[in-house]
Design brief:
This protein has helices at 3-14, 30-42, 62-73, 78-88, 103-109, 111-121, 137-145, 160-169, 190-201, 217-224, 234-242, 248-264; strands at residues 18-24, 48-51, 97-101, 125-128, 149-150, 152-154, 174-177, 208-211, 229-232. It is of the alpha/beta class.
Length: 265
């Protein structure tokens, strides 16, 4: 099993739900990314979603867009992100890292070259927002043969027939976008999300993570009751944005610990 699959299996045995915080690699500075990753794990993160900075992040709201801009100022691209993951792996060989990004940097590197480099770095999952399942069969196979899980998004508007197509391509877990819109949107309807997650469960045995609208401990607790994983993105990046270089790691640890406590409750 991949590290992602092993992590979810272990959590299921203990009756716990996964906490998956998101940060953008290189934000606020590439020299702090690895320390932030270790801090998130220390505070209770089970998996980490690591954003690959990109100039046109179409699925991301303004908060994460600004994070990409800050990272790109320091010239953090895909190769640097992989180097940061490899550095993280020097001390942590257990916590799964999922890269979230866009097709352009992967295509520029070459899909097979990227798959090899991701394997070498210790990447566990890849979520490519603009790779539809119809066009990524070969890429997904490249990842799976290297024990890397292709992760896909499902949305409130995804039809049942398309859910079948997506879950047949996915592995590790599937990521349900809890609302229509970009990351950081508000007004999460937990009843509607619960109904949708229950419907998706009829079509797959994969764990289901929920994100795009989890903004505080109360929301995280509510989502944990219905999903296998709680994904927190914009709220984590907001914490980076309002912190200083001296206290960003400490502040992210405090926020992650707060979310962990709420989820476990």
């Amino acid at each position: 099993m991949s590290r992602i699959q092993t992590t979810f299996a272990t959590l299921k045995q203990t009756g716990k739900k996964a906490l998956i915080p998101f940060i953008t690699a290189g934000d606020p500075h590439p020299n702090q990314t690895v320390a932030i990753l270790h801090g998130l794990v220390k505070a209770g993160a089970n998996l980490i979603e690591l954003g690959v900075p990109f100039s046109d992040p179409m699925a991301d709201g303004p908060v994460i867009q600004r994070a990409s801009e800050r990272a790109l100022v320091h010239k953090v691209g895909l190769r640097k992100v992989l180097a940061l993951v490899k550095e993280f792996r020097q001390q942590d060989n257990q916590t799964p890292i999922i890269l979230m990004g866009y097709a352009n940097p992967i295509e520029a590197m070459g899909v097979e070259k990227f798959a090899d480099a991701a394997k070498d770095a210790g990447v566990d999952g890849v979520l490519t927002v603009d790779y539809p399942p119809e066009e990524s069969t070969e890429f997904n196979a490249m990842l799976k043969v290297r024990d890397i899980d292709p992760v896909f998004l499902l949305s409130p508007t995804t039809e049942a027939s398309r859910v079948d197509l997506i879950v047949n391509q996915a592995s590790g877990f599937v990521y349900y976008v809890s609302l229509k819109g970009v990351t950081g949107s508000k007004n999460l309807d937990i009843v509607e999300v619960a109904d949708r997650v229950a419907t998706i469960r009829k079509q797959t045995n994969l764990p289901i993570g929920v994100g795009f609208g989890v903004r505080d401990a109360a929301t995280a607790k509510a989502v944990a009751k219905i999903a296998d994983a709680v994904v927190v993105g914009s709220r984590m990046v907001q914490e980076v944005e309002k912190s200083t270089a001296d206290n960003v790691v400490e502040n992210l640890i405090a926020l992650t610990a707060e979310l962990r406590t709420a989820i476990d409750a």
